[in-house]
Every structure is written in C-alpha cells, then in structure tokens.
User: What shape does this take?
Amino acid sequence: MNISGHAIVAGVVGWPIAHSLSPRLHGFWLREHAIDGAYVPLTVARTDFARVVEALRNAGFAGINVTVPHKQAAFAIAHELDDAARLTGAANLLLFRDGRIEARNTDSDGLYQALHEALGESAKGKKAVLLGAGGAARGVALALARLGISDLAILNRNEVRAQNLANAFADKTATTMHGANLDAWSKYAGDAALVVNATSAGMTGNAPLDLALDALDHSAAVCDIVYNPLQTELLKGALARGLKVIDGLGMLMHQAVPAFEAFYGVTPIVSPALRAELEEALGA
Assistant: This one.
C-alpha cells in the first residue's frame, strides 16, 4: 500500500478487533479504485471510546466504523443521526465533518440486502426469531421489519433487555415484536420461518449458542451475522438438518458500501471477487 500525506484515513474501532475483516474489505476496494487512502483497525476499550473518537477526529480521520461493544456509545456521542440510527439507538458508522460527528446505522440495510438476496420475498408475512438484544440486534430488528416479518420474537439471556428492545420498536414498524428469555426458544422456534443470531456467541474465541435446531420446521432459514468463523456451529447444525443458511459475509459487505462511499467518495460494488478475498482471509 502506497499512500501520500494527502491520504484519506479511516478505520474500525472495537474490543476486540483482531477478528475484523473490515480492513481487508476496505483495503480491497482501496486497491480496486486506486485511492490514496488507508483503513486501520483500532482496539479500544469501553472506557476509552469517547476519548479515542475525539482524538481521531482531531487527527483528521474521515470517520470510523464501530463494532462490538461500542455501537450504542457511538449513538450517544453523535451530534447528528440518520433515521436508522435514531430508530435503532445504535450506530456502526461515525463521520467527522465540519467539527461535528454524524452517526449512521448501515447494519440494518446491510442485513436487509443480504437477506433479500437469499430469500427474496419468501419471508414476508412470516414469523422470525432474533437471538440477542444488544447494539447489533437493534439493526437486525429494523432489517427484519423491512423484510416484511409480521411477528418477531426477541430472545435474550437477559429478558428485560429483550423486552426493552421490543418496546423501543413499538408503533415504529408494522412488525409485532415481543421479548422473552432465551429459554423460551422452543416456544417460538416451531413457527419461525427465519432465525437470526445477533449475539457474539459462536465468534472465534466465544462459546457457541446451545440451541435445539430440531425445533425448527424443515423450511426455515438460519442466519448468523457472525462471520469469523464463516460457518459457525449454529450454521453447521442448520446445514446438517438441511436448512437454508445465510452467513455473515453478506451483511458485512453490504453494510460497508455506504461507509466506503462516505469515507472515500467512491461507491464500491459487492462482487464475487470481494467475497473470494474475504473467504481467503478466513481460510474458508
């Protein structure tokens, strides 16, 4: 990579961050479009987040992507919010412009694009289960509403957080949402046309979810927004049962398009070559 003193610099902030494919993804597009720029991974603890963001803004960064566990903190420090960030209460993209911080949520559109590519209109009017109630789950809930899911059960180990997320979307979408404890899985799984894991369970270094997938109908689809590893234990279990699976790369690639455009002024394309690059990085 050759950059000049005029290079546009952006990055991704998280804790941990070593697993992130975002530098490889944005690096692919930077090379493809011969842009004088760089995209760097930054490991930042919860307690340091606001100070680091301010330092990056003062250092001339164009902006940053934000991943676990900072998406709600990113929302909280912004001066301006797009509609998706405002509705979800979480942001995965911060842009530094004219001394102000603009927050966006591109996760919801990224997942919507990935699910629509895989399922088309087949999930419209159907029921779904969302696993998790953190910052990532907020974008997922919005994507599922946009997909046309009629009824969404949000399951989380902390039932109050699940109920709070469901309440946050009350009267804001046409989808009926309700929260429950993860132990209620068997109650909702049988009617679910789609299951989405929005937790970090199954990510490299984390224990997988312990779910009985035989509770699902044979026509159900299972999506895991975790992409490292590409085939999580959840997806392996779904494949073993002959269920349709959607891995996390689609969401990752599609959510990155508006971020790259905002950072570098070029609209990139999600292509088979990009997916091959990321699969190679994962050893898939």
The first strand starts at residue 8 and ends at 14. The mean pLDDT is 95. The chain is about 40% helix and 20% strand. The two ends are 25 Å apart (CA to CA).
